[in-house]
Amino acid sequence: MQNFCGKPFEIHFFRNHSKSASTYGALESLSTMNGSMVKPRKHVLCTALSSCAKTLNWHLGIQIHAYMIRSGFEDNLFLCSALVDFYAKCFAIVDAKKVFSGIKIHDQVSWTSLITGFSINGHGREAFLLFKEMLCTQIKPNCNTFASVISACVGQNGAHEHCLTLHTHIIKRGCDTNNFVVSSLIDCYANLGQIDDAVLLFVETNEKDIVVYNSMISGYSKNLYSEDALKLFVEMTGENVVPTNHTLCTILNACSSLALLLQGRQVHCVVIKMGSERSVFVASALIDMYSKGGDIDEAQCVLHQTSEKNNVLWTSMIMGYAQCGRGSEALELFDCLLTKQELIPDHICFTAILTACNHAGFLDKGVEYFNKMTTNYGLSPDMDQYACLIDLYARKGNLSKARELMQEMPYDPNYVIWSSFLSSCKIYGDVELGREAADQLIKMEPCNGAPYLTMAHVYARKGLWNEVAEIRRLMQQRRVRKSAVSYICSG
DNA sequence: ATAGGGTTAG
Fold this sequence. Notes:
This protein has helices at residues 21-35, 42-55, 58-70, 77-89, 93-102, 108-120, 124-135, 143-153, 159-172, 179-191, 195-203, 210-222, 226-238, 245-258, 261-274, 280-292, 296-305, 311-323, 327-339, 347-360, 363-375, 383-395, 399-408, 415-428, 431-444, 450-461, 465-477, 484-489. The chain is mainly α. Among the domains are: 1-102, no CATH class; 419-491. The N and C termini lie far apart (77 Å). 44% of the residues are buried. It binds one DNA strand through helix 2, helix 4, helix 6, helix 8 and helix 10. This is Pentatricopeptide repeat-containing protein. Keywords: Repeat.
């Protein structure tokens, strides 16, 4: 048995993780043909290439490319488009571009394949530029093209303008009722904070599928309209649209952010009805929802009922303990997992355990974990873990050690770090370090009155009335407002 | 025969 390159084919190669029957069939028939020395026809190669793209079967894909060249199929537009798609999906965007440039006469599919390729490889700008280039040709974009180019624009610079331009073209070409296009547009508008535009589009769409609903629900959630997200979820259920795990996660997050324990429990019922508890995504959303809602025992139950546990689930639980002040339990769980080697901790695990130490005031333990991170697990701490440790020292009153760490760490302290440091300076009445922290904060956010007020408080406690007056003068001179938020922030 | 949407956790 020979393959296209003269080496034997490995049959098991075709029995990979392809999900669709057609993918399996295409690869299977290709292997059978190969065994019987029948030359595969062009359309078989085309389907096979598409399957290689879907299953990231690089090895077979490049063999098909080689075979195409040897058999004189190099100029076939169908095969070339499929090749562009294959290379792009396998992250070989340079090869995809090369094949695309070699095509003499393009069609909608070849253009769309490369636009999608740029998009999924994170080159949103190039995707949009290529789309504009396409507009200058005879070949007009269709719904597939629009769906790709819009999702490429999400989060890009100039997304607002691009979205407007695209929407105009979409209406002109009658693609504004296509669910693929609508869901991308909703996502794009929601990411721009233009929730009204997203809603307008949503209500004007007649036969909405689950993805369109999911886009709108997560759009609401992203823009902090969690109540609307929940309302739409209920409405969707009434329309007999079946939620996916993705829907449930989004909805549970909405419940978490509103600390809506009651509604969260109802969603938990839906989760059980759908048999979605096994999804680690759903389980971690549940744990998070119960933790934030204050029902740590229920969070524990969810964790225990989840058969496949991973880092995210464990970390959610540890963070849950940390946030509700059950520091000892957080440490106990973490240590137990390490001993049993059930957890290979990463940066976020350490943030969780350091948060637990911080909330419970376990300084020695905190230092121990912080050091363990590097010595036992080869992880170099990032800003978050430094922030925990610095805050831990400062809250315990060791301000100079905290200040030292801020200088030692390979990052510039951010607003949160300076701000919590200032709070500790206030508690322990350290004028010198407090003044430094306040100066830094004022430099970072000149209009925020909070650091001025905290410093005024520190000075007043020490009876430094001249300094208090100086602060008042500075605030008037710089027109810094004492907003309600500032009062709250200054503690 | 070839191309398309929402990727959900800490």
